[in-house]
Fold this protein.
Amino acid sequence: MFSAQTYIQRRHALRAQLNGGVILLLGNEDSSMNYQHNIYPFRQDSSFLYYFGLDQVHLAGWIDIDSGEEILFGDELTLDDIIWTGPLPALKAQAEQVGVSQTSPYASLSKKLREAIALRRTIHFLPPYRPINQHKIAAWFEIPYASVPDHVSMPLIHAVIAQRSIKSVEEIEQMEMAVNTTRKMHIAAMQNARVGMIEAELAGLVEGLAISGGGRLAYPVIMTVNGQTLHNHHHHNTLKSGQLVLGDYGAENEMHYAGDITRTFPVDSTFTTRQKEIYELVLQAEEAAIAALRPGIAYQQVHLMVARLLTEGLKGLGLMQGDTDESVAAGAYALFMPHGLGHMIGLDVHDMEDLGEDHVGYSATVERSRQFGLSALRLGRELEAGFVLTVEPGLYFIPELIDRWKAEGRHQAFLNYERIETYKDFSGIRIEDNVLVTEQGYRVLGDPIPKTVAEVEALRQA
């Protein structure tokens, strides 16, 4: 937890962005796996964490924009609770840790809301992504469950995004902790992978390191020899000679800041010539994209720069052809990279996307494209100092997509399907780092994680 002053300042800054009313921030509840008392690991709502800092169930925060009144709603533990979970500080003591002087039982929140509604005050709340919170709002406001999203506060959404997008020095320190734990996870996978292992053995290894780092995984592990499947969470394949392993995973540290790193390495001790050619093309694109980061540049522009670099490289390998600019404008490169270059990262691995992906990633001057591939770019807007984002280009040979485009005759002027057919067994390569945009340009977070061919092969041979 940060100092009380940090949370006081955050709430004060949020109030200053809105024109009256009340801000209601709901914490999360426990969520059951398969029966009531067998629960998933608790994860607090990220916006509640950002403004109220408390990592406990059954809490809600109240901020009166007009009067400045702040209330933490929650309940004291009963003796039965303490027997099973152990003691916690009293609610008032927890509130004082984050600079809130007033507390009230959770049940009193409904009365407080009814009073505000009766006075026709504006109640600002964020989109609920968990059904239990949506049910609460529907009951409190006496509106249909399905209509709750229609009543969220757009001014609050925009204010929260503007504030949380700019990471403070203390937040960057937390993020670097997460990235450095993630570094240990990736190095361990590269050092321990062997022919004959099951993907699950490596997935278990890296998840254990995330937990031993004081937190847990920021998202489910992708550890696969089928890197052409972008979000492959299956871990049942056996590692075989000649294959590549794509590992995309990250640690969430004790304060819930996320790391998100991808590395790709050979099952053997060295890359084959063909693997090395594709790998170095992806690495060149990643390094060029990182070097291009600075305040004011639109990330959509960086994505398209990467598309041109990849297209030129694939032309050199005989996989693409024709005019590069025309090819990129047509979207032909998306056969090989059907995803976006990156996204915001912070308290969420896809930061604040519960508030609306386009609200986070786009602006009045940069609209989301509808073109296949480019439409999957989660962050396209102009960058600002203090943003932290992922840079994650990749090249993938997806047999089903290749077959579909070939049958449809798509982009024949730019794609050499005869040559592409010989790569359908290649799988995929992605390389990803987490980068802070600074006033001067950029800084890659954390200690360096091996990614050159020489560095990766040295770890495979260790």
The chain has a mean pLDDT of 97.
